[in-house]
Amino acid sequence: MTTTLSASVVPENEIDALSRLRASLPDGSELGKVLGAMSDGLRSGVGVTVARDDDQLTPARAAAMLGISRTHLYKILDAGLLPFHIVGERDRRIFMVDVREYLTRTMAFRAADAQSIAKRQQLEDDLLDSME
């Protein structure tokens, strides 16, 4: 079940307890990283959402998590870029794990694209320099 925790409802002493728990874990602990992100977010006034991989999201919720419009999300779903299943007669649901994997793929693509653009720009700069 997806749970969102508003920073305004968490007392400072509970955030401190979360930070102490994180500190008690071994260095490099994946759980420690998650607890650290939670405590840092809450301490800075940012809400935190915790979701299990098997949580099912509505298209509206998935779109909000991805930072895109629901209309754009439907285009992504219809293109087969993000798996979904039908509940009832026509309502779509998307597993959280699929949203996370889609986001990871999208970020990797954007990073590769940015590197390609930077490399092309460097080649153009080198060519212009050699012409001078």
UniProtKB/TrEMBL annotation:
Taxonomically, which superkingdom? Bacteria
The answer to whether UniProt assigns keyword Aminoacyl-tRNA synthetase to this entry is no
Q: Which UniProt keywords apply?
A: DNA-binding
Instruction: Show the Pfam families listed in the entry.
Output: HTH_17 (PF12728)
Keyword Repressor assigned: no
* A molecular function (GO) term: DNA binding
InterPro entries per the record? HTH_17 (IPR041657), SinI_DNA-bd (IPR010093)
> What are the Helix-turn-helix domain coordinates in residue numbering?
57-105
Question: Mind telling me what this protein is named?
Answer: DNA-binding protein
Protein species of origin: Arthrobacter oryzae
